[in-house]
Write a structure and sequence with these properties.
single chain, mainly alpha, 10 helices
Length: 242
């Protein structure tokens, strides 16, 4: 996927490659492989501009094909080709069957607007909410880390945000914004894209800076048409041309 592909075109390309109805019967080699064309690779890398889920290990996808043989860890299994969390099954087929059902359920719940059901699904938070975001038809905010979404919500007066579930946070933030989306935030806000990421683990100082920026983006243009305040928005503190 070319770097200059628009976020909207990227979004449409993802859905064309992995339509909702295909997820229930998706083969393991389509879900995860080492050829840079799997569902997991698209979710994390190709669709990075739709919100970042970088970080952590590939176990966050439930099961993955190993480029290198993983070192054994408690609660994790490998057959030398695939590695997975033991909670999903004792064999690759058992594990993938469980993970595929989870992925399909997340997408179906998102498409139907049943976001509360996603909270209790047993998959990594960032992964499952990015899946939900992609299949929700612009009815979710593109921030997949609870602490970041809660900080942004508190900045615009949504009290007690840290105590809310992800689905509650999503709905609370959506309630204060219009209902359609501008994916290219940098362009819409006239800001230079300098590679400042609104995601990831944060020290106290960086957390404050990011929180202020998220709050600023939410508050700055209340009439701007957007739904997805992405977790990976390239922003600049300076306005374009300054």
């Amino acid at each position: 996927m070319a770097d200059n592909t628009s976020p909207k075109a990227l979004y449409d390309s993802f859905l064309a490659k992995f339509p909702l109805e295909s997820l229930e019967t998706m083969p393991l080699e389509v879900y995860t492989n080492t050829n840079h064309d799997s569902f997991c690779y698209w979710l994390e890398s190709v669709a990075d501009r739709l919100g970042s889920i970088w970080g952590g290990s590939a176990y966050k996808f439930g099961i993955y094909k190993c480029a290198n043989l993983p070192v054994g860890m408690k609660g994790r299994m490998s057959d030398g080709e695939y590695a997975w969390y033991a909670k999903y099954g004792q064999t690759r087929d058992e594990a993938f069957s469980a993970v595929r059902r989870i992925v399909s359920d997340i997408a179906r719940y998102a498409a139907s607007g049943n976001f509360t059901a996603i909270d209790s699904i047993d998959l990594g938070t960032a992964v499952k909410w990015k899946i939900a975001f992609i299949y929700a038809d612009f009815k979710l905010v593109g921030v997949f880390k609870h602490v970041m979404l809660a900080a942004g919500a508190e900045s615009v007066g949504i009290d007690g945000s840290m105590k809310l579930s992800m689905s509650q946070l999503q709905q609370a933030v959506m309630a204060v914004k219009p209902t359609w989306m501008c994916l290219n935030m940098g362009k819409c806000y006239g800001m230079k894209q300098t590679g400042f990421y609104l995601h990831g683990e944060m020290s106290g100082c960086m957390r404050l800076v990011k929180r202020l920026l998220i709050g600023r983006l939410i508050r700055a243009h209340p009439r701007w048409p957007w739904v997805g305040m992405q977790s990976m928005i390239y922003v600049s503190i300076r306005q374009s041309g300054t």
